[in-house]
Amino acid sequence: MHQPYYKDPFTGIYRLPWVRLHGTKDYLDMAEILDGFPEIKQTFNLVPSLLLQLNDYTENNAPDIYLELTTKKASELTDKDKMFILENFFLAHWDNMIRPFPRYYELLVKRGLSFVKGELTRAIKYFSENDFLDLQVLFNLCWIDPMFREKDPLLSELVKKGKDYTEEDKKILEDKQLEILRRIIPKYRELNAKGQIELSASPFYHPILPLLWDTDSSKIAMPHIRLPKKRFSRPEDAVKQIRDALDYFEKIFGYRPGGMWPSEGSVSEDVLRAVHAEGIKWVATDEEVLACSIDTGLRDSSGNLTDPSRLYRPYNFADVSIIFRDHKLSDLIGFVYSGWNPKIAADDLINKLLSIQHSLPRNKPHLVSIILDGENAWEHYRNDGHDFFKYLYERLSNEKRLKTVTVSEYLKEHDAGEKLNRLHAGSWINANYSIWIGHEEDNLAWDYLTDTREDLAIFEKLNPDKPLDEAWKSLYAAEGSDWNWWYGDEHTTETQEDFDELFRLNLMKVYKAMGKEIPPNLFVPVLREDRSISPEITIRGFISPRIDGIVTSYYEWYQGAYLAVGKSGGSMHKAESLISHIYYGFNQHTLFLRVDPKKSFEDFPPETVFSINFSRPFPFRINVTPKGRFVNAELFEKKDEAWVKIKDITEVAMQDILEIAIPFKDINAKEKDELNLFVSAFKDREEIERCPWRGNLSITVPTPDFESIMWY
Domains plus CATH for the chain? Predict the structure, then answer.
């Protein structure tokens, strides 16, 4: 059971709702279904960052963006709210979660099964207040497990009602969500106390431990991998993630777990020695790691095991028992059986287990390990997998030739494992770490992390008395594996931008906690397609506007480019941007920039300072400060980590708009150089606005024949 840490470290609001929604759909029912099958033993792995967030919801009424837009009265939704809801409140399996609710599917069709974000402005006009209220209810209702919808009278009534919901109905649903979330941890505690389940843990923020230990370890499985520019090697961080996980687990459950699923089954020899030092008795990973460790293929070309006894037993390295999951059986449940008749699927799995038993020596017990994601598979099953579980658990309960056990139970009663002379460094995916390192985006993320980690270590050494707990917390959260899961070409999701921003926000928070300037590169998305923000209109010719702070003529900026700030991501700290548009253009020698406020500059916070920041080709900054009826603009260059004033910029004006002329030679920019820049606003050295929020404006310094080229 695992979710990354979704909390925005600046706002304290969870960016994504998956802890709450999987909590109401998957975490409780996976445990409660065992009440009807006392003979079934299972091991549940609970990631501490998930437990932390569950407790935040239940103890602190933690908000998430989706929850805020659920609780908001439908009559009070803004156009921006409505567009967010139409885009995001259909994030559920359409066939198994939306179609069972006819009204919900009707609203999906009304929005469009496929859509372009730009069309949402038009689409919201066709949705009534009642449509949005129904959508608020149905999105959250479909994410409540069918078992609870059937058993709970109030939830059952909401399902039967089907449409035309009221605000009172919505409040009932919200209360039921919280009630379900509050039952999760006590239920696992209860089943564990009875001995029916074992609980294990993962490192706190779910990092890839071997890569924290040393990114060069990825070369063991992939000798020719392209590594990040800087080597990350922080064994102490790996140990910290392990130790914090065990401490938090003990705080919640009253004891330290004996087992650990290293994030994504990622193991190495160094990591096994580290978990042993922290008291862990067993870990689990994938069969391909075993094959590489013993340098022997386990399966033939048809996928059949050549010697089943090699796989179906524990091993031992550094006094830690290791169980290796049956990749094929695990994937059948995770990816294949969802499309089958549930009884046939359950029978097929039992028959495969009996076939495995028949292939093994009868002189001792053997352990078949089936390990998979505990939450994401079930939405692909009809009825959230309950029919499959019912048939499977009934067969297992009555099948005398098979016995379900917890991992520790087997190791204690039978076999702690044969010693491995070598443990391969790899994960459950292809026995390597290619999902998290090697791709351009993955490597850039590692470089961001390395730079931030080094800056924090240096700062702490120079400032031993400054409290830095918040900085370290954000750094460790950024070490989690989930950010890199979505970088690269292997995986995609509708919410990739949120994952990218959360990764960078955690790194930004480190600098904020240190009281240092946030490096400009952290505002640039790791996702390649988001790094440069495209304007609404591109530059089409030279311009030479009059720098007077007013819109003298529509045509003076006509050949330039402009960016609508709200459409480019808004600002870092505010829901509403202070700036409406940014215009820019050039002639052969000068860059022109214009900033249009959303309201009058007179309504801005007192002593607001505007900053024009260049990160390429060289770091320059222009601070624009209003001085009564006048405006002062100073050009700074970054030298040896300090901003040094170079000169005053004289062509600047601020009245209705802010206009400034910046000679290319003043920022050392020559023909064909690419300029990367953004505009920010500060009050008391606190950034209150950044435009664009994600990425940069990208401008190429023109050649003398630019206009003639554009003409053709």
Answer: 18-194 (no CATH), 202-419 (3.20.110.20), 440-525 (no CATH), 554-711 (2.60.40.10)
